[in-house]
User: Fold this.
Amino acid sequence: MPANHFNLLKTSGSARAGELLTAHGTVPTPAFMPVGSQATVKTLTPDDIKGLGYNMILANTYHLYLRPGIDVIEKMGGLHRFMAWDGAILTDSGGYQVFSLAPLRKISDEGVTFRSHIDGSEHFITPELAVGYQEKLGSDVAMVLDECTAYGDSKEKVQQAMERTHCWAERCLKAHTRKDQALYAIVQGGMFPELRRKSAECLTQLDFPGYAIGGLSVGEPKEIMLAMLGETVVLLPKDKPRYLMGVGSPEDIIQGVARGIDIFDCALPTRVARNGALYTAQGRINIRNAVYKTMDAPLDPDCDCYTCRTFSAAYLSHLFRSGELLSLRLATVHNLRFLNNLMRKIRESILNDTFITFREDYLSGYETTDEETRVEQKRRWLSTRR
Amino acid sequence: MPANHFNLLKTSGSARAGELLTAHGTVPTPAFMPVGSQATVKTLTPDDIKGLGYNMILANTYHLYLRPGIDVIEKMGGLHRFMAWDGAILTDSGGYQVFSLAPLRKISDEGVTFRSHIDGSEHFITPELAVGYQEKLGSDVAMVLDECTAYGDSKEKVQQAMERTHCWAERCLKAHTRKDQALYAIVQGGMFPELRRKSAECLTQLDFPGYAIGGLSVGEPKEIMLAMLGETVVLLPKDKPRYLMGVGSPEDIIQGVARGIDIFDCALPTRVARNGALYTAQGRINIRNAVYKTMDAPLDPDCDCYTCRTFSAAYLSHLFRSGELLSLRLATVHNLRFLNNLMRKIRESILNDTFITFREDYLSGYETTDEETRVEQKRRWLSTRR
Assistant:
């Protein structure tokens, strides 16, 4: 059996329960990947991440190329050894980051010239280089280099970028040699159903071992996001894993699973945690609210994370109000554990064929405060427009 | 046997090995206490602190009085429960912090009026209040309220402050009622041997269960610090624990132990860690130096801490250069483990009566880079002068 084989175990409506076999262990799906762009999930050690129940994380080729450099990590025996993580790693190609973080990019069919957001130095990346970097990093799943567009871009512009993304996908596939690493394609097409369908059809002909959906959750209304997702997923092969990039609030994950997504990643759960926004089954709360200053109970009594098992909301409130570093870690632990528990419950409900009920119950009980999701989408959108 | 009994087990020259019995466990001495001013040792959970080998930490009444407030912590069942730490806690009275952190203080025989360094609000503290606050916090060791002076202050000024400190010590002792808490006196007297002796003589007549030495390591040359320490320690009762406040570099700890000190605390080891300055048996190194960018070995191959067991110096260098939060924690873990190992070795050498050799070997092998110790002393001194 090849590394990165995907087993589809059960469906419940369009929702799927499966497992992704990698050279660094089996990942039960649907799965959420914590984001460790710079070879670290912020505030957490590899032991912590394992303890929270995660088997797979995401790292970013763009960040690691700029710092410490791909060659440094290769010399250290690859990314797993460098960051002491023996679970699975998916690396993003750098496509999205070049378009959202790097100023002064020039794009041609050959590749992208961009400036480092760290020191302004100029760099050039091609599909072949993006694959080569990820092979040196030694991630379990690599992503093709794609050209990203923004919400609001014209159909012509989106179509051009999509077509270039298809050419690049083919070049990536040709350049890719590493047998213990899977290379996933990225479906683009912006907010145009016709282009989304075209992109899915075109890329599935290339027979990648997995398919990602890019360019969503970049500022568009949620209905549009879900509609585009629906258009795309139905055209993807059933026996391959499907990865919805950059999506990860509890409610979006549930909606994604309902449409047939297997893998998610998002910096939101860890970023909002560091702002004191914490997930509960009743919705997101902000630990900085005055009510928590004297609350002698865990912030989420239903939660089994270290933070909730050990500390009162009052203590967590104190740490946040005092600007204490431990607050960032305790909040990260909570949100990631909350999401891991959510993924486990989702998976169980699919295996029991009760996902539809689970989804209804969850979303009806979940009061979407959502102002920070919107802020985050706006942030992503603004950075894409730059 | 009363809580906070001290057993002197062995001496080796003037160095002492003992144990401090508290309501929250036994603390082998000589001991270093990590500083957790705001009810948290920065970046670490209580589990981490225990795992590093510590049985006792320091917290600050001044900080906790301002935020979250003594009453909040009392309502949460006291400081141990609030911060989920079941080891011993020593609370500083707030004396030093009022003089080093709070602007616009007015001092009278009755007490000190000061402004919060957080919001500028005005507060008044007396010896009786300082004891009452610490009784509410429920620390295992409380400290008397003292008046602090700065390096360079006139003998007259230092003498006046010392005499007020003595009056306040008596008032603290009278106000103190909690039987499971020990109240320690603080010897002052600045850089004047005669005053140091007078302070030690006066306070030992009051029969406190422990004696601290305050007002050192505030910017004076190291020789003067050690001379003042020597003058003071010999006059303290042999059967009581001796606590050198605010001192904690490896070499200063060894020099303190050599003169008969049992307990130390200092924010320096954790603060310099967060700047990338890490202890090794060969001296302090800075992980930001270029040499570590590609070093495929632990920063200290002799160290058994999680950081050194798990990561290369190159990875730690990457985290620091990338401004990653995990760097602060991994460095803190290393420095605190280094110091805990040092305390263990010191204690063993005293029990084996080989401390003099140990000290010589250690200090000869230890190249004191020391520029940051000096920076830290200057910082403390400057803040005291404000």
Q: What stands out?
A: Chain A touches chain B at residues 38-40, 42-47, 63, 67-68, 72, 75-77, 82-84, 293-294, 296, 306, 310-312, 314-315, 317-319, 321-322, 324-326, 328-330 (CB under 8 Å). Residues 14 and 259 of chain A are 5 Å apart (CA to CA). The mean pLDDT of chain A is 93. Chain A has two domains: 5-267, 273-371.
